[in-house]
Each structure stands twice: as C-alpha cells, then as structure tokens.
Design goal:
Glutaredoxin, about 650 residues, globular, five-stranded mixed sheet, alpha+beta, Immunoglobulin-like
Amino acid sequence: MRFTWFALYVLVATLCAGTSHAQLPAKGPADAEAVVTVRAEFSVNEGARTGELSVTATIRDGYHIYAMTQPKPFLATQIHIEPSDQVEVSEAFRPSRPAIALRHKSIDVELHEYEGAVTWTTPLRIADAVDPRDLTISGHLLVQACHDQGCLPPKKHPFTAKLNVDNRDLTARTEAAGAPSENPTQAPLDFNKLEAANPSASTLPLFIVLPMAFAAGFILNLMPCVLPVIGLKIMAFAQQAGDSRGRVFVLNLWYSLGMMSVFLVLATLAAFLGLGWGQQFSSVTFNIVLAAIVFVFGLSFLGIWEIPIPGFVGSGAAGDLAHREGAVGAFSKGVLTTVLATPCSGPLLGSALTWAVTQPPLLTYLVFAFVGIGMASPYLLVGAFPKLIAFLPKPGEWMNTFKHILGFVMLATVAYLLSFMLIPYVVPAVAFMIGLGAACWWIGRTLSTASLNAKARVWIQAAAIAAAAGFVSFGWLHGVMKSRFDREVDRSLAARHVASAQDATSSQRDNNELPWQPYSHELLARYTSAGKTVLVDFTADWCLTCKANEAAALNHTATRRFVEANGIVTLKADKTHPAPEVDDLLQRLGNKAGSIPFYAVFPAGNPNQPILLDGLFASPQPIIDALQKAGPSRNDAQRADTTGVRTRR
C-alpha cells in the first residue's frame, strides 16, 4: 500500500508543474518563420515629439498564437524593444482586438488565442535631437504558433520599425513650422524603467543569502499553514518516548527528507517553469486534489478508516507498537507539512527566493535546499537530542483524543482550501469528498483479519465509488452549478445598476476596507499619469499572511483615513487565480520569485521609483510610513495638509 501514497505525491507534484502545448508534436513540416510573419512601423503626432509604435503579426490559416494575457503553462506572446537613447517606449502594448477566449479540454486553464492578424500598439516619445524620418526602432516578437494537434517551437521574430510613409509629409511640415516639442510636467510610468530600477539579480553574496534562506525556512514552522500537521509531529514525538536515540534520529531524518523532497520539486518548478512560491494554489485541479488528500487524512484521524502507511495515524491503542511511526510514515508527514506550508510566506523568504530564481539552476536548488534544511532543523535537533521533548507526557489515552482533535483540524483545513476555490467548483468538490468519505468507510469496515483477496476486492470497490463520485461531481454537477452561478451574477449586476450611487457610497463607508480596484497595467499607467499616488497590494485568497496584513495594516481605520485624506488610489493585484499582468509587474519590481504578500507604492510625480514592502505587519504603521514618504496625490496635496491626519513614528 506504500505505492498509494507515492502515487498521490507524484500526482501533486505533477499538478504543480501543469502541462504544456509545447510538449506536443507539430503537424506537418511547417516552419515557425513561415507560419507567423511580423511587420512594424511607427507614426508621430503633429506638433509633438510623441507617436505610436505598432507591431502586426499575421498568422497562417489553421494556426493560432496566444495573447500577452495567456496564463501559464502556455507561452504568452511577448514584445521586446531594444533599448535606445533615441526613443522611449512608455507603456505596455495594447492589442487591436480582444483575444478568443477558450477553455482547455484537459486542464483548467483559459486560453487566449489570436487567429488571422493582430496588431499591438504602444505610445512612444522621440528624443528632441532625433529626426523621425531617420529613426529606426528594433525589437523582436516572441510567439508560439499552434494548431489543434500540437505546437511549433517558440520563435523570436526580429523586426525593424520605420516611420509610416503617410506620416513623413506631416513630420516635414511640423519641423518646417518650428513646432515646439512637448514638455510634459508629469513623468509617465515606464514599465521598462521599473525593471531597470529593480534588477532581477540581487547584489547580495551567496554567504549572506544561504543563512537568510535557512532562517526563512525555520520561521515557516511558526506560520499558521503548518499548524494542522505540526500536531502529527508532536504525537510522533510522544510515540518515540523510550525508543533508542538512533531510531529517534533516523525517523526525524526521514521526516526532514520528506520536507526536502518538496522543496526540490519547488526548485525545479521555479528554475525551469518560472512558477513562484505558492503559485500552484492558483490551480483549481491542484486545490481539489490537495483538499481530497487532507480530507481522507482527517477521516483517518477520526477513525473512519486507517491509512495504509505504518505509523502515519494508527487506529489501535496509543501505545501499540504495531502502529508506531515508520520511515514511510515519517517521510509522508514531512511531505504533507511542506505542501500545506506553501500558502504562507514569512520574513526573509521573498528576498531569498527572489535571489535564487535569478541564478543558474544549481544555485536555485542550493537556496531552496537551505530553506528546506531551515524548516527541518527543529526536528533534526530533536532527533539528535531527544531530551528536548522530555516535557511531553508519556504515550496514553490522551493521544487518541489528540488524534481526533487533529481530525477536526484537518476538516477545517479542507474548508480553508474550499474558501478560495472558484465558486462553481465548491459544491462539486464537496460532493466528491462525500463520495471519498463513502469509499473510506467501505475500506474501514473491513476487518483487519480479512484475507488479502478480500481486502483487494474492497479497495477496488472503494476506488469505483470514488471514481463514480468524481464523474458525477465534475462531469454533471459542475455544469449545473456554473449555470446557476452565471445566472446569479447576471441578477447581481442588474441589481447594482438599479442601486443609487449614494447607497453604494454609504455602504462602503460602514467599514474600514480600502476602496480597492482590480489591478491592470492600463489602470496603473492612467492613475500615475494623472498625478496620483498609487498603492498596489499583491495578494491572494490562499495567502494567510496576506489576510493577516489586510486585517492588521491595510483595512485599518488609520490607513483608510490617510488614504482618503491624501487622495491615494488603491489597486488590488490578485493572484488567487492566474493573473499574467500581476506576475509581469512583480517581475519588473524585482520580485522574480513571485512571493506574496508584497506591496508597491508609486509616488505622484515619480512613479518609476516605487517604494516596495513585504513581510508580516503587526500594525498599519509600515504602510502609512511608505504612503507618507511617497506623498499625496498632486491634486490632493493642499487638502491633505489641512486634514489634521498625522501618523506616529
């Protein structure tokens, strides 16, 4: 039965990695160069040194490419402009038309596809001493062309953009008239400058990063995500009372190896697939599988059935040697502990992982390994010095009670995992777990003295029950719940249109929640261009540290008053589900690991030098200090000086 746990572990690791179209064979001998053709040009505005750059991709019939908003693991289209002191590209590229939205058949990922031809445009500014007629803008378009059976390899398509032919006469007339060049008073937000101001590779040396990674791993043991399974280790420590020092150390070493195995999987995902810390929780499939695993463990703790791993739970007497912890049980606990820890992020973790993902794979693995060693260090210490846990009571009936309490804690963890799942999946997931519960009960009612053939029949029958529950839940019930959810959304939107703005405002001011708006590149550029100070909160529903900061620092009376008094705009960059623009901004801000919570304050008048924060906050003061340093929005400066709002340092 050890294979059962191993199969579940491999399944979770596989789901983290996802699947990719790029792994499929391509149809026919088509070459990526011939399937996609690219051309580019730019135009200038009359009487100004500004204009617009356009890049057009023409795709052969029967093929498609993906939009810039395409979620991983599929390759999103990218446009890169070669740096030049002659021209400045100030904003992200915008497509000429919306992408075709589809749902992948086998994995729960939305596809954003383009067929035919599509053009991306972005504003540009030309240096004063440059004649637009002599200007050349170089760059490349990175795309992957696919068809229904597979994809071609990703291809860089270089391009050279020159002034539009119809625009040349306009440029000549403008220069002849001596039109003045534009002199903006507001420095525009430049996403490329953000990336330059926050380089991806940290300047910290390795001998500082490794202790930082070790400390970050140690602190993970104190995060609330780990609490549901730390109780398992406490019970194992109690069971180890009286064992030899060598056996205690070996079992704790197996537990630590279970932890390390997950960190090595995460290092692989970060080094080769670009997945950040905790990003696997953005996958509905991963969350359903993990919730199902935790659910069946909880049922085992409550005595419904017994997990076929020696010493993982044990349904017999607390002191029964037959149920003492074994190597497989210790390893499994280490795996489960680490998987459940990944929604949390502690101090130093973001800095260490951001450094790691910008390095060669060998260093990435080394830093992740040190995080794992740091998390495992308390258990290795107890293994080496068992007297450190001498304060625990001797094995007895209390362990059965404690085990049952852990069962309810596990069920509460399932509720937490369901809380950030896409709403149409919640009821099907609950129905699926009811089927799993029936399967576990069917196994649990079999006597331990039954023959091997009888036990095998019971397991086959239980697997059939679970498979039928999954088919009904996600084959039929999910469609019903999605239809109902869509209808309810339509009713809610209609009701909001009817409600008056006054009622909406008064309703919002009844609490301390900031007036959050969903993040987008376009919205950030628009507000910063208007002279607004902008606070961006990078968060996710599965991030418990983020939720703690929201309660203690962000949605707080002092923060809300300061934001209102200074005209500060608040944007929520939500990573609960795949969000390419959010990931892109994190990358440009130097957070290559994508770890959250993370905060960026873009000052009015100087948005290209944002103030960055991360970590766990006990009060609103760090957020208010950053906002105060950034200053009020420009058109709110006078009002902010007369509000009487002050902060305590």
